Amino acid sequence: MIKHHLLLFFRNLRKEKSYSLMNISGLVIGLVAVLLITDYVISEFSYEKHITASQNIYRIGLDYASPDEQVFKSAENYPGVAEALKENLPEVEKYARLFDIGRKSNVVITYKNNDEQSVASKQRSVFFADPSFLLMFSVKMVEGNLETALSEPHSIVISEDQAKRYFKNENPIGKSLRMQNDEYGDDFTLRVTGVFKTPSVTHLNYDFLISYSTLYSRRSNAIDYFRHSWQRKQVYTYVQLRPGTTVETFEANLPSVIKKYDSDQSNHAIKFIVQPLKDIHLYSNLADENGVNGSARYVYMFIVIGLAILFMALINYVNLTTARSITRAKEVGVQKVMGASKKQLISQFMTESFVFNTIAILIAVFVASLISPVFRQLMGLDSEILIFQQPTFLFQVVILWMLSSLLSGFYPSFILSSFKPMNTLKGEFNTSNKGNILRKGLVVFQFAASSILITGTILITQQIDFMLSEDLGFNPNQVMVVERAGALPSNEQTLENSIALFKRSTQDLASVAYTSTAQSIPGKKMKRVFSIKKQGSVESPAVTTQVSGVDYDFINTLEMKLIAGRNLSRDFAKRNEGVLVTRSLVDKLGFNNPEEALGEFLTIKGDEFSKPIIGVLENYHHESLKESVIPTMYWVNLFDGEYFFMKVKTDKNLKATISGIKDKWAEAFPGNPFEYYFLDTYFDRQYANELQFKSLFNVFTWLSICIGCLGLFNLSAFTVNQRMKEMSVRKVLGADAKHILTLLSKQFFMLIVIAVLIAIPVTFYLINDWLSEFAHHIKINAWTFVSSALIVFVISGIAISFQTVRAVVANPVNHLKD
């Protein structure tokens, strides 16, 4: 029986090659899209899955409310929290702390071999870690003991990639690495005790793990500070709860621990943020994250897009198969007369569906495998992992094949098997009104989905273009950034001389307009946040303000706008110089205008010291346009800047300029690797998720359009073929080309009008919801929807016109003879 079904299937396939090719093409496009989206979704949800106890591990963040009721939520916590939780809560089985030295400072790690040839490099992914971290996070060790590798001070374990970089073919175990950094002045000699496989699907990016006890040798009170302190958030804190413990029980006991250990509750209010480890990558967007996390919203949106594209492809198959039912009606009638039961006919057509989908899924797997590396690179995934290497790939393919076969085959099988044999053999076949309505409804769904995606693409592009082109309040273009040297001289005067030498020598270059330093950089949250008040005013509100030290040329280098007062000046002694503030701080302090604020003294850090306002800057975006503008203050700090900013006059001979700056760096900071980037590129990295989302959204929008057009092309071809004799009669009776075109096209355009009308409110709701994530965003206007509708009509018109024009130019005699 199966053999007979297959013979009939391949006979029909050869008989109608054009129809079969179109139908398979639509299915293949849909299946490729679903395979790629599934690969992306599974990759995003697989974070931390390699960790054995991931279900029981939680990160404890900090929810801090300042005196002016400003709330800060940080991924970091106080160093003393971990031990306090372990000692006071029996639910906690173990803990691990991570001190992210690579994010907090410029770290240089150096290896000098026996030939005195050194390998020195700046490193970002460097942590001080508790010994328990390796076991708790299921780190896969290539060399070394998992339980003891970080138990001794001045021990370090490194990734395989970094082991090859520093030691090449040497065995790294027992070798020494030198770790220096600028922020804390560390200069440690560390012994390599282990090598681990480079982690990939984790929210933590680590290449170097230094024993946490190494921190205790920093200074006399280091043990108390890094082990017991509740004064300053510094570390990521992870706890593993005992099996059987509920997180609700654990959370209920946290306030008692805070009350016991937090000695400064009168000046602030704190709570702990308990985050499941497996949720951090997609659901956490706190301050002080180790890196840019993913977005659950985007993942779920792509799941919906993937399902929509799959259904569009299946709708094509269903519509074309049921539309062609007339051509197979006599075949069904003959089989029924010969004794075939309805069950046998359903079996035949379901077999055809499964075979058809088998061909499509095999082609789709081949195509997806070819483009998977490019797609994964576009999405920021590991491009070396091929789609068919995923552990669940075969399962995905089987489920997708069965789903598409069943969904696309059930309804056509039911329709074809329900024909009455006597009527079909006489040629008396009338299409069901219900069937026509269903086909039209499916076409409406297809083009409503396409319209939503097209409108979404336009609005998403507009929002991202708005963020990339909006006036930031400063000019990031042509600004080259070099981060402060990681390996600094131990003598402070020498450090000051080195900084002064580098600034002076680079500014002497003809292609450099300004060189300046600052403790912060636009595009990254400022580290220092203080409570600011007007001096002598009891009623003055305390305003949480981000603060950065800068030198005298910083404002000019970034071309920030001074709207009142003067800039920082060398004419005043550093200790007597005032501060620059932004308009938002002036407004929050209660001044009527910027000029009124000039000369007023501000108390900083709870009356520790005060400074006069000498100038007011226009508000600017220190972070992305996703965030609100934050009150900001600048004061003079000449030798503690973490970043050097060089305003390049022109991009002509840029290589020569970079080479010149590199030479000056080598003179001022010998032995330090030279690394640079440009401020505009650095700032725009904040939109990585949005740019990624836009690219993928564009791709799948056009795929949906292709699928919709293929379906409309085939459906219009079938409709024209069925009505060709009618059109021939009309032409003989005097109907002109315009009348024929209108008659054939209007039913399709009416469906598209309905689809567009359905799509408008749905798109408006979805895009408004997406835009709510941004503090600064575009306004949706009606012309966007008009543009989208026009695109849908034009594309649909092109797809339909190929067939309707064929009816117009056809010779009526040829069809009236039949």
Distance, first to last CA? 36 Å
Reported for the largest beta sheet, the result is: 13 strands, mixed
Tally of distinct domains: 3
Number of helices: 26
Q: Radius of gyration from the CA trace?
A: 34 Å
**Quick one: how many beta strands?**
24
* Mean pLDDT value: 85
The proportion of residues in beta strands is: 15-25%
Helix content: 40-55%
Category from helices, strands and their pairing? alpha+beta
Shape: globular
> Which regions are unreliable across 5 or more consecutive residues at pLDDT < 50?
none
Please describe what this structure looks like.
The chain has 818 residues and is an alpha+beta fold. The chain has three domains: 1-46 and 292-430, no CATH class; 67-267, no CATH class; 479-686, no CATH class. The protein contains 26 helices and 24 strands. The strands form three sheets. Strands 1, 2, 3, 4, 5, 6, 7, 8, 9, 10, 11, 12 and 13 form a 13-stranded mixed sheet that branches. The protein has a six-stranded mixed beta barrel with strand order 16-17-22-19-21-20. Helix 2 (17-45) crosses helix 13 and helix 16 (433-469) packs antiparallel against helix 23. The relative contact order is 0.11. The model has no long low-confidence stretch (mean pLDDT 85).
